[in-house]
Every structure is written in C-alpha cells, then in structure tokens.
Amino acid sequence: MKTVLITGCSSGYGLETALHFLDRGWTVIATMRTPRPDLFPASDRLRLLPLDVTRPDSIAALVQGAGPIDVLVNNAGIGLLGAFEATPMATVREVFETNTFGTMAVTQAFLPDMRERGSGVIVNVTSSVTLAPMPLVAGYTASKTAVQGFTASLAHELEGFGVRVKLVEPGYGPSTRFTDNSGDRMNGLIPPAYAPFAETVFAGFRPDIVTVPADVASAVWQAATDGSDRLSYPAGPDAVALARQD
Questions:
Q1: pLDDT tens for each residue of 30-74
Q2: CB-count exposure of residue 72 (10 Å: 0-12, 13-18, 19+)
Q3: CA 90 to CA 182: how far, in whole Å?
Q4: Rounded distance between C-alpha atoms, residue 22 and residue 214, angstroms
Q5: Beta pairing class for 232-235 and 3-6
Q6: What is the residue extent of each domain of the chain?
Q7: Packing angle between helix 103-117 and helix 56-66, nearest 10 degrees?
Q8: Which residue numbers are catalytic?
Q9: Packing angle, helices 138-158 and 103-117, rounded to 10
Q10: Are 124 and 8 in contact (CB under 8 A)?
Q11: What is the pTM of this model?
Q12: Which is the most buried residue in 23, 39, 130, 170, by most CB within 10 A?
C-alpha cells in the first residue's frame, strides 16, 4: 500500500486529489492549516495533519509526523488578481512565500528520505498561466513560473537517485476558492485607469471551457503513477488547448 501526502487539502484541487487517491486504495496524508475531518469519509487509510507551508517549524513537525511517503503533491497555493502597478511588493512577496518558497521548502524537507530510499515522486501543481501570457496576474504568474523552472531543473538533479519530479498545470477553475484564498490582498488592485481593460479581460472568459477539480485530480494521479519521465501534465480542456499551442 503506497502513501501520498498532499498539501492544501481544505478545498478545490487538493481536496479532490486526496479523495481520488483514497478511492484507489492509497494511504492519504491530507494537510491543511486547520485539519477538517468533516471534509472526508471515515477511513483507516486517511490521516489529517496540520501544515503551514510558510513556517519552517510546521514543515519540520509534518515530516516527523508523516514518516516515509511515496508521493508528495505540492498543491497549497494562494491567488492574486489585479494590475501589477497597484500591487504592493509586500503582497507579491506573500504570494511567493506560499506558492514558490512553500513548495520548495516542503520538497526539500522530504527529499533526504526519498533519496536514501531511491524512490519517490514529487508532483508540483502550478497553473496554465505558465503556458501562455495572461493579463492581471503578473505576480501570481511569476510565482508559478518560478516553480516550473525549479521543477524542471530538479527533475534532472534527482533522476540519478530514482526520484521523479512532475508538473501538473491546471486551467481556469471558477469552481475553486482562488478568490477566497486570496483574501483581502486583492482589494483595490484594479484602479480606475485599469477598469476598462479589466472588464474586457473578464468578458473574454469562456465558462464553457474550464477546469474542474476532477481534471486536476486525474492529472495528478497520472503524474504520480505512470512511471514515465514525462515532466508536464496540463489539466483541464483549456490547459490542454494552451499546451498544444505552445
């Protein structure tokens, strides 16, 4: 029986991915800042552990509590939407702390055991904003693009140790808590000068071609289990279409 640890499981992609692996007989360690057992069915193969990816002490406690794992899924992240001109650099740094440095820190914490055992898979969830330029998400795109480069380089670095590193790139997911997870940091980030442009951007969204959590869970499952050296897995019809244009 294999074990997967997934960050950011309180909603959306992380929650769906945890349920996906649980339904397929895996042991699942689902992490979130405040564990919520009510989100999951009762199972002796499920463990809920607290994790704040921006705190080294929280990551260290997780490693001790989790023990050896076969797959690490770095899914925890926060959103950011707005004109870059109006975005405080403190907000950009906050997004990087979770999306980029949090992913890197959790990965680094679990690497020694995977390397010593000569096996393991690391799946980093980024975004389709890395596949094509999109407006009003410059800071968010930067945080996710950094993870793309980090993952591609790390895949080469760990290949000789039997550890595979993968990317899952979800498309636009209106059913997720992207805005809720962004909190107050997005308030006031579309000033009047940018309002007409923002309205044009929002009007261009196609609600008929979107990504749902099941798309991402399926892509993460494939990345974790296909045994290949493939690096990137676009998730959702819109992300797949963007990847084909690349």
A1: 999 999 999 999 999 999 999 999 999 999 999 999 999 999 999
A2: buried
A3: 14
A4: 14
A5: unpaired
A6: 3-245
A7: 30
A8: 140
A9: 10
A10: no
A11: 0.94
A12: 170
Q: Which two tokens stand for residue 152?
A: 């591609």
Q: How many residues does the chain have?
A: 246
Helices (H), 26-168: 56-66, 89-96, 103-117, 138-158
Strands (E), the chain: 3-6, 27-32, 46-50, 71-74, 120-125, 163-170, 232-235
Structure tokens belonging to residue 48: 């809920």
Q: How far is it, in rounded angstroms, from Cα 80 to Cα 77?
A: 10
The answer for residues whose C-beta is within 8 angstroms of residue 124's C-beta and 6 or more apart is 74, 103, 107, 147, 150, 151, 165, 166, 167, 168
Stretch 213-240: mean pLDDT: 97
> What is the tens place of the pLDDT at every residue in 76-92?
999 999 999 999 999 99
Report the alpha-carbon distance of residue 81 to residue 127 in Å, rounded: 14
CATH 3.40.50.720 assigned to 3-245: yes
Q: How far apart are CA 239 and CA 209, in angstroms?
A: 9
Question: How far is residue 92's CA from residue 69's CA, in Å, rounded to a whole number?
Answer: 32
**For the chain, how far is it from start to end, CA to CA, in angstroms?**
38
- CA–CA distance, 103 with 76 (Å, rounded to integer): 8
Token representation of residue 204: 């261009």
Distance, in Å, from the CA atom of 56 to the CA atom of 154, rounded to the nearest integer, reads: 21
Closest CA to 51 of 18, 29, 27: 29
**HSE, side-chain direction, 13 A CA sphere, residue 145:** 12
